[in-house]
Amino acid sequence: MIRPVLAAAAGLLFAGSAYAADVSLLNVSYDPTRELYADFNKAFAAAYQKETGKTVEIKQSHGGSGSQARAVIDGLQADVVTLALAYDIDAVAAKGLTDTGWQKRLPLNASPYTSTIVFLVRKGNPKGIKDWDDLTKKGVEVITPNPKTSGGARWNYLAAWGYAEKKFGSAEKAKQFVGELYKHVPVLDTGARGSTVTFVERGVGDVLLAWENEAFLAQREFGKDKFEIVAPPLSILAEPPVAIVDKVADKKGTRAVAEAYLKYWYTREGQEIAARNSYRPRDSEIAKEYEKSFAKVELFTIDDVFGGWTKAQKEHFAEGGIFDQIYKN
Amino acid sequence: MNQPQAFTYTPPRDDVHTEPGAIRFVIVALAVLFLLIFVVLPLVVVFASAFSKGVMAYVAALGEPEALSAIRLTLLVAAISVSLNLVSGVIAAWAIAKFDFAGKTFLITLIDLPFSVSPVISGLVFVLLFGAQGFFGPWLQAHDIRILFALPGIALATIFVTFPFVARALIPLMQEQGTQEEEAAISLGASGLQTFFRVTLPNIKWGLLYGVLLCNARAMGEFGAVSVVSGHIRGETNTMPLLVEILYNEYQFVASFAIASLLAMLALITLVAKTVLERRLDEGQVVSDD
Predict the structure, then answer these.
(1) Where residue B14 falls among pLDDT bands split at 50, 70, 90?
(2) Nearest-CA residue of chain B relative to A4?
(3) pLDDT at residue B269 tops 70
(4) What is the DSSP string of A119-141?
(5) Quick check: A194 contacting B, CB < 8 Å?
(6) pLDDT value for B4
(7) Can you tell me the distance from the alpha carbon of A168 to that of B272, in angstroms, rounded to the nearest whole number?
(8) pLDDT tens per residue across span B226-252
């Protein structure tokens, strides 16, 4: 019983270890970037080999942004982290794994690609959803993950809040609106991809609050004849940041490659890969090229409306914060 | 035993039923229906989805480097945890069944512990022990030993979760067999090891195989504990059950169900082998009862 299993295992093992790259990086990322980094890694590896003659292999790990940060803190040997929001990398930095000033080390808040929050609705938009206040109409079911565990969900929440505060003029009214919105949520999944699966495959809900790139991907996978993307006139500028994990990169001696890897995002090729995968590029030329791919949305930043992630996290998502208050009622 | 001699005890007969035929039929039909819905249907769905785009797509999905790596890791982890649990399970069962010592009940409870703990907790225990912020974390990091988010961590979590299977299969069997044969062997001059390999082991071989089989099935199928300690590094620390979820979330349904079908086949093989072994076990007991 044991011997054939062992023999088979050994056979497979030897078969698998034929290829080894000169350098190997581990990129710990969040859920919706699987396709993005599959593309980006291939392009970077080719570019790096052309420039230095060395082969580089980039390994990926994906999961909920918060739990990925936790894994890195617990010792997952990530050379770079590419997470959904700055707060999660702050948590990694707070444990001394990387410099607390990490967000200033790369241009544009260390967020080489951005996205926003849009609505994915079923074909023909039967509930007529056009803007945020349509979400709280009677009989509309909204699908969004749990902001306690999901980075994307926090962007969703903050986008709704920012809209309400601007429209109704006060934080108190915004709280009321967001509270009402979550009464329309039948199920809170733990991650963005989980919510997409709930909406798209299980057919639950009338509208999915989603990363723009995630909405495009779902549409590509399942066909434009099934789902439509509705971009609200006002939404949040989501900036998923990237950073080197100093402690790990220095120990493994991979800092130079890791730096080249993240800087590659700011090249034309990198920006184009972002745009191709439905992330909004930062480069104005590429942005112009792909102008038609993205709806015109007025975007506000988290710094403008909420005074940055640390403050937003503490006020809204911490234990006993505003989300806890509205979700209990 | 305490009955007066006038009464002869007749064992209950299998073919005597008090229920009318209709009720019996309904009960059997319900059981079959239940099995069809909850066991057969999901199995059919797994295989149907796996082959929905044809045999070529199925084979291609299994030939992907990530799939191969997951299969390799799963087999390796199963081999490690089954062989370790085989040795430790036999030792534990032997100690419990053949000797009397203080704290025996406590030991039995300990053996059962992994059954009563949620797999997620089983995984988290190892994070707390070996994680960078954990008990041994700083020491491990200083010596550059990687346990968590690597093969050792996955193997440890699997060993923990599957520990009870071998011991649990052996303890009742060994207790029932008693120590007479061993005593006879020793009184005839056999050494301890000789006694074990010539007397004890042949007596428990079917029970042992049974335990190993269940242990192996669980080791290959474990999700929760492994998910916590894996780190989900593509092509490196994803086992088959983890890869099934990942592929599903990536909308790669054929690939996802192709891997799932391998696990389902493992379950089917286990089921058949289990039935055969159970028959052997029963026969063995009938012989020793006479």
Answers:
(1) low
(2) B79
(3) yes
(4) EEEETT-TT---SGGGGGSTT--
(5) yes
(6) 44
(7) 66
(8) 999 999 999 999 999 999 999 988 888
Separation of alpha carbons B203 and B197, rounded Å: 10
Integer-rounded Cα Rg, in Å, for chain A is 21
Q: Which residues of A touch B76 (CB under 8 A)?
A: 9, 13
Mean pLDDT of B176-201: 89
Mutation choice for A interface testing from B66, B72, B143 by most A CBs within 10 A: B72
Q: Work out the average pLDDT over B128-135.
A: 91
Residue B270 has pLDDT above 60, yes or no: yes
Residue B10's pLDDT is what?
61
Positive or negative, the Cα torsion across B181, B183, B184, B185?
positive
The residue whose two tokens read 């998910």 is: B227
Q: Which residues of B touch A198 (CB under 8 A)?
A: none
CB contact (8 A) between residue A75 and residue B130: yes
Secondary structure of chain B in HEC code, one letter for each residue: CCCCCCCCCCCCCCCCCCCCHHHHHHHHHHHHHHHHHHHHHHHHHHHHHHCCCCHHHHHHHHHCHHHHHHHHHHHHHHHHHHHHHHHHHHHHHHHHHHCCCCCHHHHHHHHHHHHHCCHHHHHHHHHHHHCCCCCCHHHHHHCCCCCCCCHHHHHHHHHHHHCHHHHHHHHHHHHHHCCHHHHHHHHCCCCHHHHHHHHHHHHHHHHHHHHHHHHHHHHHHCCHHHHHHHCCECCCCCCHHHHHHHHHHCCCHHHHHHHHHHHHHHHHHHHHHHHHHHHHHHHHHHHHHC
Round the average pLDDT of chain B to a whole number and report it.
88
CA-nearest of A277, A278, A270 to A295 is: A278
Mean pLDDT over B37-56 rounds to 92
Identify the pLDDT of residue A19: 57
Residue B17: the pLDDT is: 62
pLDDT, mean of each 10-residue run, chain A (329 residues): 52 52 93 92 96 94 90 95 94 95 95 96 94 95 91 94 95 95 92 88 93 92 89 95 96 95 96 96 94 93 93 93 87
Distance of alpha carbon A55 from alpha carbon A73, whole angstroms = 28
CA distance B130 to chain A (A): 8
pLDDT for position A16: 47
Using the beta-carbon criterion (under 8 Å), do B232 and A61 form an inter-chain contact?
yes
* Cα distances (Å, whole numbers) of residue A7 to B86, B231, B235: 18, 27, 21
- For the stretch A45-65, pLDDT in tens is 999 999 999 999 999 999 888
Report long-range pairs for A280-283 (Cβ below 8 Å, ≥24 apart). Answer: A280/A113, A280/A114, A280/A115, A280/A116, A280/A212, A281/A113, A282/A108, A282/A111, A282/A112, A282/A113, A282/A114
Burial B116-155 (b: 16+ CB within 10 A, else e): eeebeebbbbbbebbbbebeebeebeeeeeebbbbebbbb
Measured distance CA(A30)–CA(A64) in Å, rounded: 5
Burial class, B98, CB count within 10 angstroms (exposed 0-12 / middle 13-18 / buried 19+)? middle
In B, which residues are within 8 Å of A71 by CB distance?
A: 149, 231
